[in-house]
Amino acid sequence: MPELTEVETLRRDLAAKLVGQRVREVHVLWPGSLRWCSPQDFARYLEGQSADVLSRRGKYLIFGLQGGGALIFHLGMSGRLLLGAQGEEPGKHTRLILEFDGQRQLRFDDPRKFGRVCLVRDAEKVVGKLGPEPLGNEFSAEVLCSLLEGRSRRLKPLLLNQQFIAGLGNIYADEALFEAGLNPCMRACDLDKGEIARLCAAIKEVLERALHNRGTTLSDRSYGDAYGREGRNQEQLRVYGRAGQPCPRCGTAIQRITLEGRGAHFCPRCQRLKKEEKRG
DNA sequence: AAAGCACCCTGTACGC
DNA sequence: TGCGTACAGGGTGCTT
User: Taking every pair of C-alpha atoms in chain A, what is the biggest distance, in angstroms?
Assistant: First the structure.
């Protein structure tokens, strides 16, 4: 599923081809993908527009429009943005097509329909409440420390909360916790300074590695870049989706538990809970 | 503030 | 071969 690094990889691919290109024609095949906008208004505003900047915030991809406003995509679990040739036929799960001048097409495919497309005057309406960007300079151990302060929530659900940190999904949250040697059930306020520094570094490290590898494509193939190509980071995963397999560090079987309705993968030996935390 | 739940949706994996 | 069912996931919204 597309998380920060997958969206960032897409952003780079798409920016190189689409910035400055004029939208010639819009086809909304599944209106359910649109938020706060009828297919008619959507097409009317977009046709003739072009994006002068393509940015990303968390898992959101933002086309800054030349005439004002923003076109924003969230890929949900299975959304893909694909560059194609002009007039290319829609696939079974194609929800939206933008035909550009210059014989290029951008297709939004989304089998599970969890993705969303918004056309807004101000992007802040969509991304305004997101937490800090973990790869940005503004994210540091000090910042993480103040974010964690007073929070009694367990670490893993907190990392998945986009208002806490933007862009982490289930894969990279599990991987970061493994890298930092922290148990997903640990209470946020119980982390000491050293653990916070480790977690901060682990988040950046895991994301940077995934970015270098052009994202993670799991066996469900729910992620591909703008040309449908798979990422390579799945080979680097230490715990996610590896329940029962040996921990790469110590050989103990990786465990999978459910935390607030989401799967969490960890090594019970490398990511131990301290005794006093178990009682809480 | 935390946690639990239902909901959205469908491809896949499983048991029979 | 095929049917039914459970499950996975991110985000939102509601309730306790």
Answer: 63
Between the alpha carbon of residue A251 and those of residues A16, A88, A124, A198, A265, the distances in Å are 43, 49, 46, 22, 15
Is A275 one of the catalytic residues? no
In Å, what is the separation between the CA of A20 and the C1' of C11? 31
Supply φ then ψ for residue A266, to 5 degrees. Answer: -160, 165
Q: Helix count (H) and strand count (E) of chain A?
A: 8, 11
pLDDT digits (tens, 9 = 90+) for A44-73: 999 999 999 999 999 999 999 999 999 999
Q: Which two tokens stand for residue A101?
A: 């001048």
Please report the DSSP string for A25-81 in residue order.
Answer: EEEES-GGGEESS-HHHHHHHHTT-BEEEEEEETTEEEEEETTSSEEEEE-TTT-EE
Give residue A222's pLDDT: 74
Does strand B come within 7 Å of the CB of A114?
Answer: yes
Q: Which helix (H) or strand (E) holds A226?
A: none
Counted residue by residue, chain A has a size of 280
Q: Which two tokens stand for residue A135?
A: 């790869």
